[in-house]
Amino acid sequence: MFETLTDAARAAAAHEQIQQYFREHSEWFCTLSDASVQKLRRDELTIDLVNGRLIFSCWTEQGTRSWRVGGWKWSGEKLLLEASRRLGAERPVIEIIPRASAISIAATVKAARLLRCEQLAQLAASSRAGFAKIERTSLSPGARRGQPGKYARIILRQKHQRIAVTGSVASSKASETDAFLASALLWFTRTSERSRPPYIQQLWLIVSREIKKSLVTRLALLHDSLREAIVVCEVDDVWTELAEIPCPARKELWKKRLSRFPPGPAAEVSELAAAITAEAPNAIDIVHARHGQTLRYLGMPFARVRRVFSTERVWFGIEGSHRRLLEEKTFHFYAELMNDLREHRSAAAADHRHALYRNAAEAWLESILRRDITKLDPGLIIAPLYAQFRLARGGRLGVRPIDLLALRQDGRLVVIELKVSEDREHVLQGADYWQRVEAHRRRGNIARARLFGERKISNQAPLVYLVAPTLRFHPAFQTLARTISGDIEIYRFDINEDWRSGVRVMRRLRVN
User: Fold this and answer.
1) Residue 159 contacts by C-beta under 8 Å, 6 or more apart in sequence?
2) Position 397 pLDDT exceeds 60
3) Are 19 and 49 in contact (CB under 8 A)?
4) Domain 104-253 has CATH 3.40.1350
5) 418-465 per-position pLDDT tens digit
6) CB 3.0–4.6 Å: which of 113, 171, 289, 388 could bond 401 by disulfide?
7) Cα(first)–Cα(last) distance of the chain, in Å?
8) Residues 267-286, mean pLDDT to the nearest whole number
9) How far apart are CA 83 and CA 70, in angstroms?
10) SS3 label, residue 66
11) pTM for the full model?
């Protein structure tokens, strides 16, 4: 049972005990809300007591993240925290495991996943009426050395061909579709190139019902020869039966029912939001939401304007910290926050390890391009330009927004996906966004919403711009780009590593 932190006294007691646990071990493994596992030193984990609230912070690949802790439990082997962030929009249970215990836990997890891998191999082989022999089974590499992978790697052999089979041996969800498909395509490509007769001619993807719908949609975007080599099978809940799933042709995607398209251009900026923006017009931008506006300083949210009983109010504070209502007695805290942002959220900042400098880096790059998208491509119109654009009214759960949706001077839509660190799914994300935008363009939804005013939308498919610093493209980027159908125009934009000082395009090329 979790101990719920219902008052300041309980929070203070929990703070002392958790600090003691952290002092007893120099290294920890932390499993975060996105299922990623971080190996952290003791000084990269902090538990703070702020105004009677327990705040847990740690270093992640996206920078420092903080959560409010509502409950906790120590099992003797690991620490569990019931956490929340983004005003309760995310409520993960965070696992923090001492390194010594993590070794034994990893061994147990690996054994369990290898057993499921063997079960999956037997199931796949038997589905071919006994004509397939299991040649090899293994797990994919883990996220870090010593960690078990979450995907099965199986080779079946028949008289005239081999079959590559892969599927998840851990729990999966729709948001992990791109990660699974990227892993499968890379393994299939590399294994096929190294194989000897009989050659590997098919790739079987064994999936659960959670990801089958999103996966078959992605497969329709692959080039024909690869798509024809792939067979998708759904496994039942008890792992006793496989059912083949038909993969739709591209033209079938345009017949699917679409989610309701969001309304047109956002409402006017409120007076309070305009007044705050005027303090630093070259740094502060506004993101419109259903219930008001979010203000960002070079991409980092620091204030929200909401209407309460016909009166506008402002709440301020960095994500993960305590938010305060802006009023006379709290104005000095607001002034301190703005001074910190000016000092540390700057290309000229002295401390590059400061959280305000490292966090929300992609949003920082987005904010630079929002001010002048022609730095990326002179053919793009400067405004309107839509950031974090959702193609579903209200934003469906698990559907990611498009970083930037733009229009070229010739009327062609452009989907822009930004990365500032290596991301293997970069290409597949861009292709998925292309499919969503193209579906709405074909239905006329984008033109009817008048997103770009009186400008005419071209009767051509969108372009995809994938943007990252030159040294931050994943090594597998080009391999995955070649799997996408050639009629989807995808371009790679290499920008300068010091993009915070100003974006410069170092190279642009078509990648598929």
Assistant:
1) 131, 198
2) no
3) no
4) yes
5) 999 999 999 999 999 999 999 999 999 999 988 998 899 999 999 999
6) 388
7) 53
8) 88
9) 6
10) strand
11) 0.80
